[in-house]
Amino acid sequence: MTERTAETTGPRLGGIFDYAPAPESRSIVDIKSSYGLFIGGEFVDSVDGKPFKTISPATEEVLAEVTEAGPRDVDRAVSAARAAYTADWARMRAADRSKYLFRIARIIQERSRELAVLESLDNGKPIRESRDVDIPLVAAHFFYYAGWADKLPYAGFGPNPRPLGVAGQVIPWNFPLLMLAWKIAPALACGNTVVLKPAETTPLTALAFAEICQQADLPPGVVNIVTGAGDTGRALVEHPDVDKVAFTGSTEVGRLIARSVAGSDKKVTLELGGKAANIIFDDAAIDQAVEGIVNGIFFNQGHVCCAGSRLLVQESVYDEVLSSLKRRLGTLRVGDPLDKNTDIGAINSAEQLDRIKKLSEIGEEEGAERWSPPCELPDRGFWFAPTIFTGVSQAHRIAREEIFGPVLSVLTFRTPDEAVEKANNTPYGLSAGVWTEKGSRILSIAQRLRAGVVWANTFNKFDPSSPFGGYKESGYGREGGRHGLEAYLDV
Ligand code: NAP
Ligand code: MG
Fold this sequence. Notes:
The chain is α/β, with parallel strands linked by helices. It has two domains: 34-271 and 472-490, Aldehyde Dehydrogenase, Chain A, domain 1 (3-Layer(aba) Sandwich); 277-456, Aldehyde Dehydrogenase, Chain A, domain 2 (3-Layer(aba) Sandwich), CATH 3.40.309.10. Helix content is 38%, strand content 15%. It has 16 helices and 17 strands. Strand 8 (244-248), helix 9 (251-261) and strand 9 (267-271) form a beta-alpha-beta unit. Helix 2 (71-89) crosses helix 8, helix 3 (94-110) runs antiparallel to helix 5 (127-148) and helix 5 (127-148) packs parallel to helix 6. The longest helix is centred in the N-terminal third of the chain and has 22 residues, at 127-148. The chain is globular and about 65 Å long. 54% of the residues are buried. Bound molecules: NADP nicotinamide-adenine-dinucleotide phosphate and magnesium ion. The site of NADP nicotinamide-adenine-dinucleotide phosphate has 28 residues, from helix 8 and helix 9. NADP nicotinamide-adenine-dinucleotide phosphate is lined by residues 170-174, 197, 199-200, 229-230, 233-234, 237, 248-250, 253, 256-257, 271-274, 305, 402, 404, 430, 475.
């Protein structure tokens, strides 16, 4: 690891400003030793699945045994969702559907600390983020769509928009409960019922959500949770009685899904990968921009589809930005996700760590210069130090491929045209950031960027009222906001 120097970290005052550990207690969560599948309002044993273990990526400790649902399990879940759709949910007064969603939102708030601890344990993300970002946004999503449930005739899709039926939903591991909320809240608000498959490595908060559905007295079968891996996901999206497929994950799997549903009348939304440009102009407030760069790529260990993984810095401020950025990285704390002081937690899985390591090695082989601040990584678990690559050219793989980890590729530009050209030079188009003092420049650059979300003088800000989604290989369809209703309505 790199030597700590005054230039990169600032003066060290004998460690007197180091923080003492402040671990959040895990006694608030009650993790069962094993979980069945949540079908028809109950936890049931699998008929053709098998058990697998979910671990804490920070310690490799086994947290629980969960069930890998087989095709017959998936079939049972889809049947339960169909029965609930026909008998209850789509026929219920919209105002009553709304009450259930409000109830779920309030229970999420009441159980927020427990959900945050559970999410950090299973996923490895810092408690500061699960507590202050993920879980509040989860509740906000349910509140937001609860509000829409009885106002659909005014959403701009005609006077009587109809639900689609049964939604099969497959989500990734980077924001487990938040992605569940993005999927389930609009689906239920529109009168659909759902079968959701969480990611293999992060099933626990989805199972806690199943308990919340019971607690809210949600009619049985409206929400079904089938845990498992890729095969379970495939069985779900290919099931003939699924009317709508909603997927968030890699572009590779998104392609497979698009192919498998082609020719059927299933409605599909795909939220896939990204390689966002974060563009710093020379008139930007540099200190703020540096905070935005850090938040853009090191938030959630960089496991963020819209991460600002390509930094584009105007040449005239390159030295200033880089030295501030390195100094700031020297203050990031990497370690125990349950410690309230931790900025960067664990990498979610051994496979993801391998992928990050491999692409970083390729970065070095292709001639980019690698830098990390000094930091001690724990012995057990999956860890990767925050990393910056400079001297990156557009042809480098680390400038083109999604690393999905705490690794930033830095490129430079001279003119606004060059910035736009480089920013758009990617197969993806999910998000981008622009940092400048000039409002007129923000507007003109944002219009020319082929990205679903463009943040100006901020990054990674989310709100349930704001639509989210991509261009090109980042997928199609929008989630969030009024736009997000369309994906779950027959329009
Ligand atoms: P992934 O491998 O595509 O997995 C996503 C989900 O699909 C998981 O639940 C996975 O199960 C399941 N799956 C795997 N193969 C499948 C198949 N053949 N059919 C149906 N489902 C299948 O992606 P990941 O590695 O979990 O997540 C990282 C990727 O997600 C990144 O590329 C990131 O950019 C993208 N992402 C996009 C957004 C967005 O909104 N655009 C948000 C978050 C993440 P397993 O858990 O068993 O693999
Ligand atoms: Mg796990």
